[in-house]
Known about the structure:
By secondary structure, the chain is an alpha+beta fold. The protein has helices at residues 20-26, 44-52, 127-135, 139-147, 158-181, 188-196; strands spanning 34-36, 56-60, 68-72, 81-93, 96-108, 115-120. Helices cover 31% and strands 21% of the residues. 13% of the residues are buried.
Amino acid sequence: MNLLENVQNFVCFKASACNENSFLKSMELERVSIAVFDKGFNKYWYFSELTMNGVGFVTRLKDNARYTVISTNDIFDELVILLDQVIELNYRYLKVPRTVTLRLVSYVDPISGEILRFLTNLMELKPMTISLLYKNRWAIEVLFKQNFEVKYFLSDSETGIKSQVWVALTLNLFFTVLHKIIKGAEDFSTMVELAAKNLCSYVKLGNVPENAANLL
């Protein structure tokens, strides 16, 4: 998903037992682009490769990760940033010991109080910007779980799973375009909910009224 477009521009289906390396080979990231990964994805050799290719990334550091602090950066006027450090991570790739130097930003959620640790190779950006980049990763979660309620699959077959995902992606594209062309429209989630609850009614989505919430 491209953050500027808010719609999916790359979709790849792989079996759950498939090795992650096959997926990485299918995804080509352009130089100076920024990738945001889930916490479960921690391939230090791949992070090193991205850095050498000029591609930025942001992810969550695993709780049991071991690292060495190289230096600590000063923090200016950012109350939710606890630490901004440069660290070294040791790993083995092709049976050879290697080291990668990355940045670790520790952020405290002002609402829950939870401490989140973000791992990145973006050394020049403000620590708060790093935190916001990861926050926007949740757009894909909102798409599937909130807007289109793809919380579980209705079928166990490959065709059924792909069909359900493609329907959600198509609807997301449709409502994204509609939301952009309607002036003074309700927020995106309200438009989707309005359509879902009025499937048996005639509602012209092109003229969403200001009091659309009354139809929900």
